[in-house]
Design a protein that fits this description.
By secondary structure, the protein is an alpha+beta fold. It folds into four domains: 83 residues, conserved putative lor/sdh protein from methanococcus maripaludis s2 fold (Beta Barrel); 96 residues, Beta Barrel (Elongation Factor Tu (Ef-tu), domain 3), CATH 2.40.30.170; 56 residues, OB fold (Dihydrolipoamide Acetyltransferase, E2P) (Beta Barrel), CATH 2.40.50; 74 residues, Orthogonal Bundle (Helix Hairpins). Strands 14-13-17-3-12-16-15 form a seven-stranded antiparallel β-sheet. Helix 2 packs antiparallel against helix 3. It is elongated, with a radius of gyration of 40 Å.
């Protein structure tokens, strides 16, 4: 029994020895090997940051011009459509009946016109032979002109009926994307009530509200930085050199609407996306700012911090307040001072503290 226990104890000690050797073989982080960056304030040109939304330059609400039940709805939200493509169709039975009735009235009017013409010609010959009076001839001429006018009116009404029949089919006014479908198959369409909305995805702009006092200090023309966080990586940071300042000022907020044109054919953008525009302004002095790489920032729930190296070579976790993102860097409003060392790899900095005595 004692021999078995001794053998088991020896086996445990050997396993522990192997584990110790394995741990000793792992690399230990050191302050000298930790990548850091020295915090240095940079000079920034004066600017004003305005937040707004992406808008399609060409956007349309499509409403019918006639009433009736919707018998066909060929698109849904998000569909790409071509110019002239059928979008919806409204019941044409009533319009077709009206067109047939109008055509019948035209036929009747033409028959009356033909009879009135023949009568006028006959009366004219009789008048030349002095068989009828001038008054009888004038009555025949009046009947002929009345029938002629009625025929023209009926022809015009028939043309209108044909146009109305065509209005029951709704087509895309240009190539674009269906943004929203506001009706359903079988629903009642009413004149002027939108049933679809669409936009052209080839041209977008950013619309922001700028205080009237800032508008007067804008530098024009200038390169305007536009940040779109939800866009694809290649289009998150854009430069525009064209803007339009609308001439109206909101009397309540004292804001002026500014529209900034974006490059064409940006496929990752959609109307309504959040955007931020950095507008250059005239100012006496430039502002200084502190920037750190994005990868050095830790975000855990409500904690936003970086690791700062102290004089003893330890990494201290320090909470910071962020500003706006600028490419691969992030502006720091508070928490850091010039000359301090910030660890570029937060995980390596945390492991360094564990390895130090």
């Amino acid at each position: 029994m004692i021999k078995q226990y001794s053998w088991y104890l020896l086996f445990i000690l050997q396993v522990a020895g192997w584990a110790f050797l394995g741990l000793a073989a792992l690399p230990v982080a050191s302050a000298a090997s930790l990548a850091t960056i020295i915090v240095q304030p940079t000079r920034q040109a004066p600017s004003f940051s305005a937040e707004g939304a992406i808008e399609a330059i060409k956007s349309t609400l499509i409403a019918p011009q006639v009433s009736g039940n919707i018998t066909a709805l060929t698109v849904k939200a998000g569909d790409q459509v071509k110019a002239g493509q059928l979008l919806a169709r409204i019941d044409t039975r009533m319009a077709n009946q009206q067109a047939l009735a109008s055509q019948a009235q035209v036929a009747a009017a033409k028959a009356q016109l033909s009879a009135a013409r023949n009568e006028f010609e006959r009366k004219n010959k009789l008048y030349e032979k002095k068989y009828i009076s001038l008054a009888a001839l004038e009555r025949a001429e009046s009947d002929f002109k009345t029938a002629e006018a009625q025929t023209k009116a009926q022809l015009a009404q028939t043309t209108i009926s044909g146009v109305e029949t065509g209005l029951h089919s709704i087509h895309a006014p240009y190539a674009g994307v269906i943004a929203e479908v506001m009706t359903e198959l079988g629903a009642m369409a009413m004149p002027g009530q939108p049933i679809l909305s669409m936009y052209d995805p080839s041209e977008f702009r950013v619309t922001v509200n700028v205080p009237q006092s800032v508008v007067a200090t804008l530098i024009l023309p200038a390169n305007i930085a536009v940040q779109i966080p939800a866009a694809a990586t290649s289009t998150r940071n854009l430069i525009s050199n064209h803007l339009v300042i609308l001439p109206l000022t909101d009397p309540v907020s004292n804001m002026v609407q500014v529209r900034i044109s974006l490059p064409q054919h940006l496929i990752s953008l959609n109307p309504g996306m959040f955007a931020r525009a950095i507008l250059p302004i005239n100012s006496i002095k430039a502002n200084s700012q502190i920037l750190v790489p994005l990868k050095s920032i830790i975000k855990r729930s409500e904690l936003i911090a970086v690791y700062v190296m102290d004089k003893q070579g330890r990494a201290q976790l320090r909470q910071v307040r962020l500003g706006r993102q600028q490419g691969e860097n992030m502006e720091i409003f508070a928490g850091l001072q010039a000359g301090e060392l910030v660890a570029l790899d937060p995980i390596a900095a945390a492991n360094l503290n564990k390895a130090l005595p």
